[in-house]
Design brief:
By secondary structure, the protein is of the alpha+beta class. The protein folds into 4 domains: 2-128, no CATH class; 135-193, no CATH class; 205-241, no CATH class; 250-342, no CATH class. It has helices at 2-12, 116-128, 150-153, 173-186, 224-227, 250-258, 294-314, 318-342; strands spanning 19-21, 35-37, 43-46, 53-57, 60-63, 97-99, 195-197, 205-207, 275-278, 290-293. The strands form 4 sheets. A 4-stranded antiparallel β-sheet has the order 1-5-4-3. A hairpin with a 2-residue loop joins strand 4 (53-57) and strand 5. Helix 6 packs across helix 8. The protein binds a DNA duplex through loops.
DNA sequence: GAGTTTGAAACT
DNA sequence: CAGTTTCAAACTC
């Protein structure tokens, strides 16, 4: 019955009630409801044992329109608070959004066929595209905010924490829910993970907002990127960042650089000279000097420019661009050295 | 363990 | 949007 009702509404793409029925057996329903709208004449019922969100209105049961309910990242549960009588909204909540994100896609009823999963997916997509959900932002709730409390920010209740006067638990669900609403009004992405994939199919994770570090060089755990063991990206606004991708042959580079020392030739201006001398720092007296021709310099500059252009095209941060260029510079020098030392 | 530093998030 | 405050974690001693 639930399935047929939802299918009916899905086909009609109506805002408002997703399905209506006056005789739904709630104990046999599990619904993946995500956002609904409280109605003046109705109430929400929450069934803790089987996640269920139903608006009981005059003339029947309604489950209200759903939006922003993509099937990804549904990890937390934000349900309407458990009011004293579990039947009526607070007057102040009338018309306000109800958020209910389930941790997983659940069966709509106990006897669905094997096509259920696909059906649910299509259902979510269709509803998401037709809803008119609009959050309100007039609720001011003083509660531990999303940023300060890790449990709250991750959508969890506090459990075995050392927090004082904690409201982030099932006993204070009214306050908790209002705080969630305030946070979501302020920042719809407040409860999304900070670290995610930058693009579909991208293997490397990245920080969704980027860091703003100023003093740590992004090389301490103060930096969210560093803490997550990822390099800073172009969206970071960090100053003096040292947290960028290491070249696979950095070791080679460092070894090479240890043996290098750019010498003087013609008033310290390398571009006015035809050759450059590189002599090893170690065992300086015994190793022969390495000469770099003007052609080598030109070729190196061209390769560095290519790197700079690629960084610009890719929209990388300045520090990342510098890193790419320096890595290329290292490769150039390494090649020059290898050729000369072979000779 | 106390005090300091740091940066995200909240706040103005 | 920029500057300031608050907060909790990281860090240092």
């Amino acid at each position: 019955e639930v399935r047929d009702a939802i299918r009916n509404v899905t086909e009609n793409h109506e805002d408002g009630a997703i399905f209506q029925s006056s005789n739904i057996d709630e104990s046999n329903c599990e619904l993946l409801a995500l956002h609904g709208v409280a109605e003046e004449s109705g109430y929400l019922h929450r069934n803790y044992s089987s996640p269920l969100m139903i608006c009981q209105l005059e003339g029947g049961t309604q489950i209200f329109c759903i939006k922003d309910c993509g099937t990804q990242d549904l990890k937390t549960i934000h349900l309407i608070p458990q009011y004293e009588d579990q039947r009526n909204y607070l007057q102040s909540d009338v018309g306000s959004p109800v958020t209910a994100v389930l941790g997983q896609l659940l069966p709509v009823s106990g006897n669905l066929d094997s096509n259920k999963q696909e059906f649910e997916h299509e259902y979510l997509k269709s509803v998401a595209s037709t809803s008119t959900f609009q959050p309100e932002s007039n609720l001011q709730v003083k509660m531990t905010s999303a940023g300060y409390c890790e449990c709250f920010a991750s959508g969890d209740f506090c459990n075995n924490c050392n927090c004082n006067n904690c409201y982030n638990n099932p006993l204070h669900e009214t306050e908790r829910f209002k705080a969630i609403k305030v946070c979501l009004d302020r920042n719809p992405e407040a409860f999304l993970p900070k670290i995610g994939q930058s693009k579909l199919g991208d293997i490397k994770p990245h920080h969704n907002k980027g860091c703003n570090c100023k003093r740590s060089g992004c090389l301490k755990n103060y930096c969210e990127c560093f803490e997550a063991k990822i390099v800073c990206s172009s969206i970071c606004k960090c100053i003096g960042c040292k947290n960028y991708e290491e070249s696979p042959d950095k070791k080679t580079q460092l070894t090479t650089l240890n043996y290098m020392d750019i010498g003087n030739n013609d008033e310290n201006n390398p571009f006015l000279t035809t050759t450059f001398e590189i002599s090893p720092k170690l065992e300086k007296d015994r190793e022969p000097a390495v000469h770099i021709s003007l052609e080598d310099v030109k070729a190196t500059c061209a390769r560095l420019l290519v790197q700079a252009e690629e960084a610009e095209k890719g929209g990388y941060s300045v520090c990342l661009a510098e890193c790419m260029i320096m890595e290329e510079f290292g490769r150039c020098l390494s090649q020059i050295l290898h050729v000369q030392l072979k000779d």
